[in-house]
Design brief:
- With about 100 residues, this protein is mainly α.
- It has a domain of about 60 residues.
- The chain is about 60% helix and about 0% strand.
- It has 6 helices and no strands.
- Helix 5 packs across helix 6.
């Protein structure tokens, strides 16, 4: 009848603690993704989106993650992408408008 009970009351908490500390419990599940297609769909011209490297895209995604709790996600994605592209253009000496 009591065959499935732990040997001591403390072993239950040790087992529970080891489950909660496992890598499975700390694994992350994405709730948002960004792509060049989604940037273009938000209104950023194809030429600008095409100029983004994978590293650029990751930087944009990282900046979006920092802002997620503050604004609607679509507005954050567009703002961060446009800001990053503007900064990238300024560093390369590009003086053409980025709109």
């Amino acid at each position: 009848m009591f065959g499935n009970l732990p040997a001591s009351p403390f072993s239950f908490w040790r087992e529970r603690s080891s489950v909660l500390d496992s890598l499975d419990w700390s694994r992350k599940f994405d709730i948002f993704s960004i792509s060049r297609l989604s940037l273009h769909s938000s209104g950023i011209p194809v030429e600008l989106v095409a100029s983004l490297t994978d590293e650029d895209m990751q930087t944009i995604a990282d900046r979006i993650a920092e802002m997620i709790a503050i604004e609607p996600i679509e507005k954050i994605a567009e703002f961060v992408a446009r800001l990053y592209i503007a900064e990238k253009g300024a560093k390369s000496g590009n003086t053409e408008p980025l709109c």
